[in-house]
Specification:
By secondary structure, this protein is of the alpha/beta class. It has a single domain, classed as NADP-dependent oxidoreductase domain (TIM Barrel), CATH 3.20.20. About 35% of the residues lie in helices and about 15% in strands. An eight-stranded parallel beta barrel has the order 3-4-5-6-7-8-9-10, surrounded by six helices. Strands 1-2 form a two-stranded antiparallel sheet. Pfam families: Aldo_ket_red (PF00248).
């Protein structure tokens, strides 16, 4: 495993972060989830990412139980706040001071830890003054409940404003967690340049595009049984953007490139995002331990310029790189 600094902080995290969105507490049984976490630890992953909204708090509980007994100082545990949790009452969502202060306490209890290394705003809250949000995050840090602050799916302008307030409050906003893959490159135009200027790293989610870049989905064929595209608990909705025969055909044309590089297609996809120097870590999930082992092999791999160009040539106009998509796909009001 290779390690990178997160933003301009002194915190190092593993190049591969294990995330439990759409799996723990939902898609897979707890014993399978625990086996995946053990496989991640065995492979050298030290960084684990979750959120209170995943499986309506169950994912945090599963992760906390799976990490029980591990040396806390050897781990980096990340979680997030914004989306509705619990019964979804009027204050069970967003980035108000009330919701943040109550949510961090719930997350720490479920994760069985006194603090998280990184506490992230899971989306931008258009209904709460940013000053209120950042003051609450600053208090969470000063109480020792979080060491650093991050954001997820914020625009470049939102990141700049949040970073300025954090600096004034004496806390460190060091990370952004956006979607990023060979197919979804919307952060490259504005978010990455802003973050490079401010000393903020990316922790990217969906580097394998919901599994599409693994090559498991064949054009003109039904999705494999048990795959994300057949999951009616949320996975199928997330992947449907990519279930297009033309795109799936192009993805299959990546296979010889992966073979030539000595990588599986999933490894090629993960290694591709790690070529971006602003990316500190790629988030991967798993429903089976062998998937973790496969993804981890992408750490430390260098892809030469010819291979990167060949990938671009294959994917062509299937790539989505419009910077405005970050704002367009964000919630305009709090989701209840």
């Amino acid at each position: 495993m290779e390690f990178r600094y997160l933003g301009n902080s002194g915190l190092k995290i593993s190049e591969i972060t294990y995330g439990n969105w759409l799996t723990h507490g939902s898609q897979v049984e707890n014993d399978a989830a625990t086996a995946c976490v053990r496989a991640a630890l065995d492979a050298g992953i030290s960084t684990f990412d979750t959120a209170d909204v995943y499986a309506n708090t169950k994912a945090e509980t599963v992760l906390g139980e799976a990490l029980e007994g591990e040396r806390r100082e050897s781990l980096e545990i990340f979680t997030k706040v914004y989306w509705p949790t619990g019964p979804g009452g009027k204050n069970d969502t967003g980035l108000s001071r009330k919701h943040i202060m109550e949510s961090i306490n719930g997350s720490l209890t479920r994760l069985q830890t006194d603090y998280v290394d990184l506490y992230q705003a899971h989306r931008y809250d258009t209904e709460t003054p940013l000053e209120e949000t950042m003051q609450a995050f600053a208090d969470v840090v000063r109480q020792g409940k979080a060491l650093y602050i991050g954001v997820s799916e914020w625009t470049a302008d939102q990141i700049r404003a949040g970073h300025a307030l954090a600096k004034d409050l004496g806390i460190q906003l060091i990370s952004s967690q956006p979607q990023y893959s060979m197919l979804w490159r919307v952060i490259e135009g504005e978010v990455v340049p802003a973050c490079e200027e401010l000393g903020i790293s990316q922790i990217v989610w969906s580097p394998i595009a919901q599994g599409v870049l693994s090559g498991k989905y064949q054009p003109g064929q039904a999705p494999p049984a048990g795959s994300r595209a057949t999951d009616d608990k949320g996975g199928a909705d997330m992947i449907k953007r990519w279930m297009d025969d033309d795109l799936l055909t192009r993805v299959q044309q990546l296979r010889p490139l992966a073979d030539e590089a000595g990588l599986t297609m999933a490894q090629l996809a993960v290694a591709w995002v790690l070529q971006n120097p602003n990316v500190a870590s790629a988030l991967v999930g798993a429903s089976r331990p062998e998937q973790v082992e496969d993804n981890v092999a992408a750490a430390g791999k260098k892809l030469d310029a010819d291979l990167m160009k060949a990938i671009d040539d294959v994917l062509g106009d299937a790539v989505i790189d419009d910077p405005s998509m970050t704002e367009k796909t964000a919630p305009k009001t709090r989701v209840v």
